Amino acid sequence: MLDGSSWGLLDADNGARTIGGVNRKYYVLAHYTRHVRPGLTILATDGANSVAAYDAAARRLVLVAVNYAASARWVTHDLSRFRSAAGPVTRWATDTASAAADDGADRYTKYSGDVSIAAGGLLAVLFGPATVMTLEIENVDL
Prior knowledge:
Elements: E1 2-3, E2 10-13, E3 18-22, H1 24-33, E4 41-43, E5 50-55, E6 60-67, E7 73-78, E8 84-85, E9 89-95, E10 109-112, E11 122-127, E12 131-137, E13 140-141
Parallel strand pairs: 1-2
Antiparallel strand pairs: 2-3, 4-5, 5-6, 6-12, 7-11, 8-13, 9-10, 9-12
């Protein structure tokens, strides 16, 4: 967890017993550990770059997806197989390419109300380059 040269979740000098800043992988891990929680049902997805989990009690669908590309691209999730998927949609984004902690890049940044489910159950989201994103969709029924 603590190590230098960006190996750990937190930058540290173990010999000097000092802890520095948070590394990008800390924020990437947060997408999975804060949203894909015990008790959720993991669902099959069409893409190798995403994980889907369903919370039946909360009627919430969680999607964690990655854009490995060096350029932005649209990622579309087809929610038409669900009985209903009404939203709203809340998302969190982390830019993994940006190195400096104070460069203004997304670091597990929360966004609300900027994406919505289109007719036919399609949810299209623009992913920045080298970005991990979590989408939580409310009011979803299997």
